[in-house]
Amino acid sequence: MNKSIETAPYNRSVIVGILLAGAFVAILNQTLLITALPHIMNDFNIDANKAQWLTTSFMLTNGILIPISAFLIEKFTSRTLLISAMSIFTAGTIVGAFAPNFPVLLTARIIQAAGAGIMLPLMQTVFLTIFPMEKRGRAMGMVGLVISFAPAIGPTLSGWAVEAFSWRSLFYIIFPIAVIDLLLAIILMKNVTTLRKTQIDILSVILSTLGFGGLLYGFSSAGSSGWTSTEVLTSLLVGAVALIFFIARQIKLKKPMLEFRVFSFGIFSLTTLLGTLVFALLIGTETILPLYTQKVRGVSAFDTGLMLLPGAIVMGMMSPFIGRIFDKIGGKGLAMTGFFIILLTSLPFMNLTDSTSLIWIVVVYTARLLGTAMIMMPVTTAGINALPRHLIPHGTAMNNTVRQVGGSIGTALLVSVMSSQAAHANASSPANAALHGMNAAFVVAACIALAGFLLSFTLKKKPSQPEQQQAVTR
């Protein structure tokens, strides 16, 4: 039986502001320590493989918690869940700021990620609940602003703060924002989601953790360790087997932790695939371009972050406008145009040299992120709109989970192509060999973009009002 805990009126703008601020600091934290890793390695006397866990552990914890978020959203009120998520995140930030050694700092990152992993699915579910169907594109455009701008500004902010102060200052910057947002949530947040009678299945949690965690770790490690390493193969095998058992169990359960029946809606399946492809291209590009600028061109980490910033700004600023366009015309035209832009911008990156204009790279990358903005949130919104209201929490959790795994697969694929091609390149210098590998990786990226472009033709045009109403009330 469904029940609504909160019947008092709420201020939609206030709820949107609180959730956007909380999600921003949570997602920003995912890339915040990337530039600071060399300084942390020196302070704690650790190598790069160990230090990389500060980023990997954050992503793994996110990937494990997101599938559980659908259960949490149905079990607890949106107010309780938001306050809990921000409290956990703030606690992790405090621990990180004063961490005396690496294990404590790693623990702090995991605590932060535990709070962050709840924030994004919660924000999407709340937005899709408080906004009517015809305004969801605009609402999800604001989500797109956070998703795109926060990770991109992370390396730039990190580079500046680490050079001016120390890596601990990154936690000092995040802490007051997190505390203010937490206080606002306690004072102003209202319950807007519908609770359902549900209970956690411990075996499902274990299988989900092993399944998604194993796949994420395996694909994330493949780029650096190689696809044939024992560590990667074992992780992928454990993840795949656990995921098969997890899916089989969810289908049998009357109250599944994660509802795989959302894939019975064809539009949702197609849009989730398209969203995963574009996210994989985004993360893969953001991984390879900094390697090019720093390793081949000798650009500093901070300046590299500045080069990526215009693209992030354009993507962030355009997301709300693209959301409004989606509300008027639907997602098909936007997705087709977006993938075409990404395909076109892959061509210059397939021909990088050691003298390619850095300004030209900024221009092409910025155009590429504009194309990404035209796809990511519009296709996500189109897919969620195809679901009945009671499946929205499961739809958002599934979409975020698949996108997280897709991002890892895309990055691993492009990095492994880059590494293998560089290793077998007949080049006069290591820099030229690296260039050959990077160009080859963008050939693969162009193929992925072409696949997305062709698939986007199968999207339906904007549904009529009666069809939209049926999807909401079904």
UniProtKB/TrEMBL annotation:
Family matches, as Pfam families: MFS_1 (PF07690)
NCBIfam families, alphabetized: efflux_EmrB (TIGR00711)
Gene3D superfamilies: MFS general substrate transporter like domains, Multidrug resistance protein D
Highest taxon of source: Bacteria
Protein name: Efflux transporter
Parts of the chain that traverse the membrane: 12-33, 53-73, 80-98, 110-131, 143-163, 169-188, 200-220, 232-248, 260-284, 304-322, 334-352, 358-384, 405-425, 437-459
Lineage of origin: Bacteria, Bacillati, Bacillota, Bacilli, Bacillales
Compartments in which it is found: Cell membrane
One GO CC term, this protein: plasma membrane
PROSITE patterns with a match to the protein in the record: MFS
Annotated membrane topology: Multi-pass membrane protein
Domain Major facilitator superfamily (MFS) profile, chain residue ranges per copy: 15-464
Alphabetically ordered keywords of this record: Cell membrane, Membrane, Transmembrane, Transmembrane helix, Transport
Keyword ATP-binding set for record: no
Record organism: Bacillus amyloliquefaciens (strain ATCC 23350 / DSM 7 / BCRC 11601 / CCUG 28519 / NBRC 15535 / NRRL B-14393 / F)
Molecular function (Gene Ontology), one example: transmembrane transporter activity
